[in-house]
Amino acid sequence: MDTIASLFSFITTPVSWVIVQFHSVYGQIFGPDTGWAWGLSIVSLVILIRICLIPLFVKQIKATRAMQTLQPEMKKIQERYKNDKQRQSEEMMKLYKDAGTNPLSSCLPILAQSPFFFALYHVLNGIATGKTIGVIDDQLLASARQAHIFGAPLAAKFTDSADKVAALGATITDVRVVTAIMIVLMSGSQFYTQRQLMTKNVDTTVKTPFMQQQKMLMYVFPVMFAVFGINFPVGVLVYWLTTNVWTMGQQMYVIRNNPTPGSKAQAAYLERLQKHVTSHGKTRRRSEKAIVKAIVSKGRDRNEFERKFINSLTKAGLVAQPDGVVTKGDGATVVETEDGITTTAPAAPKRQQPKRQSKSQRQSAVTAAGGKPADESEPKTSLSKSDEPQDAKPSAAKPAAGTRSKAQSGQRKGPQRPKSPSKK
């Protein structure tokens, strides 16, 4: 442990200084010798470190997305060179280099936290052994040794003997109960964080060994925390539990607002976005415009959830533009070009049906046209005009061709059936 402490001695002093500064603030509220003052100082240290690591977390997300995008290509390389492991590794490294990513990029936040973790462990170990370290002098050392969190001293461990725990002013039962509960919470939060990532934020359309590796880590990490946790002081357990809770909340936010394409989280996000855009008729936030812009730019490469989102907007009379803005269609027709870009075209004018006229209007039209109706067709008869007998005498004046004469009194209205020609 002395070797590890010497390796991280350059950061031990800054870590102890930050703890002391937070302790001076919380000590005025809860008392300088209380577990709340020292415990909240450690929690505040974690929050400060995680805020500083947010840029690395963003880089981790981008690296993870890039790895997920490369999964189909990785699968092809594995199948092509399944009998040549060396060539397979070379092609994988070439693929990572061309894409500008690295599998180790997803571990950046954990690697960056390691120096702070070991520095805090060394500080708490010095408190447990009664040694001053960093900016913690004899007065602060005595105050920290008196601090208890739910009855367990800040520097006590699960594996400590009863005599060592008694020297810190506690009982072995209190220490083991508190440390066991914290270890369970720490392992449970780690398991839930990894499970949330695997069940909600993974592209379910692609199955690769990378997913199997992540699934294995979902069970391995909690076991590792449980095994190593029994050797951690209570203060370190507070640190690690706080960072796990922070990671869990941070990941929940990312999954909800920036999910992986093709995942269940994306389906839920696009459903919420569709309802939001439909109700307002437009995209209101910059993040929404960025998501819509990315979906439109994919064209025919959109996944099932993205196509459903575009179709839902179309049914609602909205059109997603290439710049991410959603506009109303205004009766326009949605057209998808060969590259999958959705555009609008003016709608074709609807064919108007002629308005039906009344009988009086038709008669007036006939009179205006000189006895020829404008929209009436010639009544159909069983015999044509040429087949009528020459000796047939009409009983009245013959009306103009194509017209319908008024019925005489005592006669049936409508076209009359011509008399049959007499047989000679």
Written description of the protein model:
The chain has 424 residues and is mainly alpha-helical. The protein is built from 16 helices and six strands. It has helices at 2-7, 9-30, 35-52, 54-69, 71-80, 85-99, 108-129, 138-146, 162-167, 172-200, 209-229, 234-257, 264-280, 286-298, 304-315, 359-368; strands spanning 148-149, 152-153, 318-320, 326-328, 333-336, 342-345. It has a two-stranded antiparallel sheet with strand order 1-2. It has a two-stranded antiparallel sheet with strand order 3-4. Strand 3 (318-320) and strand 4 form a beta hairpin. Helix 2 crosses helix 3 (35-52) and helix 10 packs parallel to helix 12. It is elongated. The chain starts with a helix and ends in a 56-residue tail after the last helix.
